[in-house]
Design a protein that fits this description.
Number of helices of chain A: 15
Number of domains of chain B: 2
Largest sheet of chain A: none
Radius of gyration of chain A: 21 Å
Helix content of chain A: over 70%
Strand content of chain A: under 5%
Distance between the termini of chain A: 19 Å
Number of strands of chain B: 10
CATH architecture of the largest domain in chain B: 2-Layer Sandwich
CATH class of chain A: Mainly Alpha
Order of helices and strands of chain B: HHHEHEEEEHEHHEHHEHEE
Shape of chain A: globular
Structural class of chain B: alpha+beta
Largest interface: A-B, 66 and 70 residues
Oligomer: heterodimer
Chain lengths: 396, 309
């Protein structure tokens, strides 16, 4: 087993360059980056003017993507760290651990980028750390993310050592944070006690379940796309099979738990319509029906469940991509409906302005910056994996 | 897969427990610390007492205008330290005719840019023909005694003053808009840095609906406003551009003995303002005489804007 892990790690850190998808990924990245840079230029020159959010729907696509990135990050780290410590084949080598850590960082750092650009005063971003008030989940999360990033980087560095007494404690601490901060993403909304749609403890469970599904899906995608199938290498093939097996099981479990709790939450509204039923109706049968039913349920959940259950490797990668897309839609399905039902009747008509409406559709600038976030994430992943490879070679 | 005893040795286990335990202890510590009552951010005591000359030469009479009476109440309240006053607003919706003078007065006083509004007036049809009426409801900031916007602010940029006014530090606000989502009254709006002058040229046809000349709007909107008794210069796109903004009961006017602009401009005398700690004030008289209500009270925000309905 030890030999197979070493071999697997070796291949893992040399595999990226051998992927048949390399050219497509490069083209995709250049397109995302070019579009993204155009969006960033628009944001920097025109501020928030080319965006679709306003004062009554203050958070939009970037915040949705931020919570998506946080979920991927937490999930990838939990799976990578626990799999490594338990010695699960496919996760037990330092190379596999490093891949999970790099993936985790490549998801959380662009998430911050989205938040930074979303702030009205981006230049005051660090005030969250300097003047923190811990009655706010935003300040608490900001600190936790930063501590997590330091922990993850330290674990990544220590993973190159043959033996380090601090590696596993850091992985335990990082996994602890990785369980907390996706859950706290739910608390971020739950803490708004005056919003009946958000003020529900089920959101923490939903965000944690989605983090597991997202982390698994992202790891499936990285393994499936960046690392070519090695049928000739028996040891690696076994590790590969084990990794995909566990990742598929976790992704399926995460999606099923998410759907189960989501159904529990929404079904209550129909048995006993409460104050937040307008939000639910907006989501299920109103403006956002396609985001919920087509993107989140059909493309992001049901099709991936089928594909993940099938014995088709390419289908797993495709399903992973769909899971990421589907949970982006799921994030928006929490974010936007929670903001569209004003509590003061007639407020939107009282003082008419494009920024004072209870509707939201992302603008092209927002989509372009979304592309930029993805491009930055891909770049961090690439550089991180290259660094892992170079450092591993040096260590050897 | 490894056996449990192989996962980590004793030392690693203790270090793991130590890190998780220490992290949890620190987290609990900082949360509890910030939840405990703390000293007010604003000055208190004798330094906040104001002996204003306003109305000193005008004798009080029994049937004087409510505006004069409220201003006397205000001057009287200002002779007390800030922590001994508690400002409230009372709005008699039976008298409100929906003229929007308060909305416009507020926009002018605070030089509000497009999309920023402190005091919209909602319109609602009540009943059906022939028993029909239109109810106008002005909606300033409620200056809640238990504000939901304050604890969510991650940078201590908004707080409740000892006199009850919920304020925003524009130089501290990062523009995360968490407070906008936390306010159930929609009382906070974000300043996205828009200008009437740049928007005047678009959206309207020619003829009499032609928009105002952009250059004249520019002259007005680039003049600094005086919120919180400071000069906020918009020329350099600095604060409050990017920040959350809301009604502050015209704190800068109160400090010099003037009533909030919406109160002064209310031609129907439907808006009242005063110190609820003064049993002789007009607002106390109104709130005790009438059956007053607050907006969406079930959230427990304890709004300090009362409606006579």
């Amino acid at each position: 087993m030890a030999n197979s892990s070493v071999q697997s790690a070796h291949n893992l850190e040399h595999g990226a360059s051998a992927s048949p998808w390399t050219k497509i990924i490069w083209v995709l990245w250049i397109v995302l980056l070019a579009g993204g840079l155009f969006g960033v230029a628009q944001r920097l020159t025109h501020g928030h003017l080319p965006t679709g959010y306003g004062s009554y729907v203050p958070w939009g696509l970037w915040i949705g993507l931020y919570f998506l990135g946080v979920g991927i990050s937490g999930g990838a780290f939990i799976i990578g760290a626990i799999g490594y410590m338990l010695g699960v084949p496919g996760f037990s080598s330092p190379g596999e651990l490093r891949m999970a850590i790099v993936l985790s960082l490549s998801a959380i750092l662009p998430a911050f980028l989205g938040v930074a650009l979303d702030l009205g005063n981006t230049e005051r971003l660090l005030y969250v750390l300097i003047y923190s008030k811990f009655t706010s989940m935003m300040a608490f999360n900001a600190w936790m993310y930063n501590i997590f990033i330091v922990t993850a980087v330290l674990a990544w560095l220590l993973s190159f050592r043959v033996r380090s007494v601090w590696l596993k404690p850091l992985l335990v601490f990082g996994a602890f944070l990785s369980i907390l901060f996706p859950s706290q993403s739910g608390v971020f909304f739950e803490a708004v006690r005056t919003n009946q749609f958000w003020h529900s403890p089920i959101l923490s469970v939903l965000f944690l379940a989605s983090a597991i599904a997202l982390g698994s899906a992202a790891l499936i995608l990285v393994r499936g796309v960046l690392l070519p199938e090695a049928t000739a290498d028996k040891a690696r093939s076994e590790d590969d099979q084990s990794a995909f097996h566990w990742l598929r099981v976790l992704a399926i479990a995460g999606i099923v738990v998410y759907l189960g709790f989501e159904f529990a939450e929404f079904s209550i509204v129909f048995w006993n319509p409460g104050a937040h039923s307008p939000n639910v109706v907006f989501l299920l049968a109103g403006d956002y029906w396609s985001v919920f039913w087509i993107l989140h349920i059909l493309l992001g959940s049901l099709i991936p469940l089928v594909l993940l259950s099938a014995a088709w490797r390419t289908g797993w990668s495709l399903s992973a991509l769909l899971v990421l897309l589907g949970f982006a839609a799921a994030r928006m399905s929490i974010l936007v409906p929670g903001q569209v039902a004003g509590q003061i009747p007639g407020l939107a008509e009282a003082f008419q302005d494009v920024r004072l409406t209870y509707s939201y559709h992302p603008s092209s600038t927002e989509y372009l910056i979304g592309c930029f976030m993805v491009a930055v994430g891909m770049a961090i992943l690439y550089v991180g994996m290259r660094l892992s490879r170079v450092s591993a070679s040096n260590a050897a | 897969m490894k056996k449990l005893t192989e996962i980590m040795d004793r030392r690693e286990f203790l270090l793991s427990g130590g890190l998780v335990g220490a992290g949890t202890a620190v987290a609990v510590g900082v949360i509890v610390k910030d939840r405990l009552p703390s000293a007010p951010q604003d000055p208190t005591g004798q330094a906040t007492v104001r002996n204003l000359n306003v109305l000193k030469n005008i004798k009080a009479s029994e049937n004087e205008d409510n505006l004069l009476r409220m201003q006397r109440d205000l001057v009287k309240a200002m002779t007390k330290p800030v922590e001994k006053r508690h400002w409230i607003m009372v709005i008699d919706v039976r008298k409100c005719i929906g003229c929007y003078a308060c909305t416009i007065g507020c926009v002018a006083e605070n030089k509000l840019p497009p999309g920023v509004v402190y005091r919209p007036v909602t319109t609602r049809e009540v009943g059906g023909y022939p028993n029909l009426r239109i109810q106008f409801t002005p909606r300033p900031c409620m200056h809640c005694d238990n504000p939901s916007c304050v604890p969510v602010c991650p940078v201590k940029a908004t707080w409740k003053r000892p006199d009850g006014i919920v304020v925003i530090d524009y130089d501290r606000c990062i523009g995360c808009r968490y407070c906008l989502n936390a306010c159930p009254y929609g009382a906070r709006t974000s300043d996205f840095g828009r200008r009437y002058s740049s928007e005047a040229a678009v959206g309207a046809p020619s003829g009499k609906d032609r928009p105002v000349d952009g250059s004249s709007a520019l002259q007005w909107e680039l003049k600094p406003n005086n919120e919180y008794a400071k000069n906020w210069d918009r020329k350099k796109e600095e604060s409050p551009v990017g920040s959350a903004r809301k009604c502050h009961f015209c704190l800068h006017r109160i400090e010099v003995g003037q009533l909030p602009m919406c109160v002064s401009t209310c031609i129907g005398r439907a808006t009242y303002f005063g110190d609820s700690q003064d049993p002789e004030s007009l607002v106390v008289e109104l709130t005790s005489k009438h059956n007053v209500q607050t907006l969406i009270p079930h959230w427990g925000n304890k709004p300090q804007c009362f409606y006579i309905v």
